[in-house]
Amino acid sequence: MISPDELTTTALDASKADGCTVVLTDTSEVNLRWANSTMTTNGHSTTRSFSVISVVGDSVGVVSGNGAELDEVRAVVAASEQAARESGPAQDVAPLVEGEADGDFGEPGAATEIGVFARLTGELAATFDGAGESGRGELLYGFADHRVETTWLASSTGLRRRWVQPTGTIEINAKIADNLGRSAWVGAYTADFTDLDFPALVAELRRRLCWSKRQVQLPAGRYETILPPSAVADLMLYMVWSMDGRPAHEGRSAFAVPGKGPGATRLGEQLTGLPLTLSSDPSVPGLQTAPFLVTTASSDSASVFDNGAPVHRVDWLRNGTINALAYPRAAAQEFGAQFTSPAENLILTGGSTARTDELVARTDRGLLLTCLWYIREVDPVSLLLTGLTRDGVYLVESGEVVGQVNNFRFNESPIDLIRRVSEVGATESTLCREWKDWFSRTAMAPLRIPDFNMSSVSQAS
Prior knowledge:
The structure is a single chain. By secondary structure, the chain is an alpha+beta fold. The protein is built from nine helices and 22 strands. Strands 7, 8, 13, 14, 15, 16, 17, 18, 19 and 22 form a ten-stranded mixed beta sheet that branches.
């Protein structure tokens, strides 16, 4: 295989554009799958992809390939230049980032191997055997994945950056063999599976299945609801993905001030008196991400012209107040704002030391909503979302979970939820259910919402 240094050097040498950036990613990935409490498949794959970003005047073209041969690399360079010449002026045009060369830029890509699951496979086998011997009647389904992505970024400005990103996730769904409608889900993020507490995940599944022995039917309505960290992550992610500066300035997002016309944003608006801070930070231990921007497509939150720009901590909410919006460099200059680029993690802090169980123990009557599913936007102006509950909504009475409740469709805006939250617990690493394939590094706190809107009963199981 062509070495990363040879590929990027060949591409830059072949470029006749005014500016050129090459983004190369090698991915090594292993996975395990199980169903009906039996191992079914495992796999190991390696892939390579690269993109050439060519700047011609104020226009840009991006073309991708797999980098199998040097002639292909040169052809991709030529194609990206042609794409730039055929496109119009870019709205996000800016000088390419200049900067340093990482000392490890010339090193090969990192790799993972199936051995990363050595402890997990033993624990899975023991769990499968234990379920049969104990007569629990439970069936486990799940998927574990470990991916190591090595990214090299090289530019005609002399910039040379390299980053190795490990990502590990596990999801487990448990069902009762004689009643598959009784099910529960848990998931976790891990960088390398050495810190994964698999027995604790299984214990939580079994606890939830025990809760489901009693089935309770409830009508739609507003209920006091405890949202554990996983469910909170799904909602907070959607909110941050909507916190782009340009749409807010142009009056087409939930972070524009209604009726005030172009340029009026909600920066500085206090949503809650609770000291909630929602941040992204590439240096958070256990959730580290690239300290520089890498993108192969421009959007309202990131620009291909900004590749290699440093990524720092951003407090999107600070002490309950809207504190930041995302601005590529061109948008920041246009709107008189600060260049702000999100990291690939998200952290919610500012709560107490109480875990989810403690919030439940302080609940007279309400719902414990363990995970969300099929979340979609209804109204971008208010950021109203709709979605379904799945794999476990539970009734809480007098501080104890007393049964499993039917599923619902919900209608809520995460902005309004922040306004109405009445209690915040302790921050912990978590894996969201809906967005895990796109965003897996989160640390969230459980929230108490006094009037979560279960808009209709769902027949989904």
